[in-house]
Amino acid sequence: MLQTELPRGRGRPKAHHVDQLRTRTWFFGVLHVSGLPSAYAIEMRLDGDLVRKRDVDVARPRKWDGYKKGKKVPYDKPGPRNSITQAEAVFPGTARWFRSPLWSVLRGDEFNQIQIEEALRSLDPVVVSLLFENEPSQYEDQPRLAPFDHGSRRLLTTIADKSPSAAARFDALVAMVLLAKLSEAISSPELRELIAQTFAEIQEPLRKSPVLSEVYPELFPLIRFHCRNWIHVATTQRMEVSFAIEGEALKPNEAFSELHAMLVNWVENP
After folding, report:
1. Which pLDDT value is given to residue 15?
2. What is the pLDDT of residue 251?
3. Whole-Å CA distances, 77 to 24, 74, 84, 86, 186
4. Could you read off the pLDDT of 55-101 as tens digits, one per residue?
5. Rounded to an integer, what distance in angstroms lies between the CA atom of residue 179 and that of residue 176?
6. What pLDDT is attached to residue 246?
7. Are residues 175 and 213 in the same domain?
8. In terms of domains, do 111 and 168 share one?
9. In a shared domain, residues 87 and 109
10. Count of structural domains within the chain
11. Does 240 lie in the same domain as 217?
């Protein structure tokens, strides 16, 4: 499980950039679900006992301002001042933004096939119902992961584009990243191709969705690394390439020119 680092302080290392992005995404998730206008308003709602109004100003921790900027990272351990648990108690559903398996993937944690399926089961019910069979097979406790095909790809894209739930739209993105990891675990070029297509399609609607609209310039390049196309240049060798820049797909002639240059370089410098 991904371990959260403490906020930077004297003698403490700087938080990992993925944890900083994780915190910012979670903050905007709390802001969206709460309907509150600012970090100050969230702080008053959740930590109002720590705010002191003085004659000329207000003394407050500014913890939530730090979360908004990613300068502070909450420490997700049991305790009375666990910010994730505090927010979840008042604004249900917000903890999933912080505790999502997405951040472990982006940190580079290794997953096997069983762990990937367990992570997929933890996602929003709308996404889970798409990815898994309706009923368990005989002598099994849980439904199996369904084959991911072009129909599944279109439905996942529709969730990312049209779902009224910001959490479901986010988890459509998370599912795609986990399926990219699954394609590696089971060495499936067919699944990998579908995932690369899915990422190309869902970027634009997600850039306009609540919460992700605030963080996509940092988030999408990290995800793109895990969703690159595979090109098999030999029976036992493949290249991973991406034909996108900041979420914009390259034109076909630009893509093929880039691919040609990469292949020439690979042949000359294997």
Report:
1. 78
2. 42
3. 18, 9, 9, 12, 34
4. 565 666 688 999 999 999 998 988 778 999 999 999 999 999 999 99
5. 5
6. 45
7. yes
8. yes
9. no
10. 3
11. no
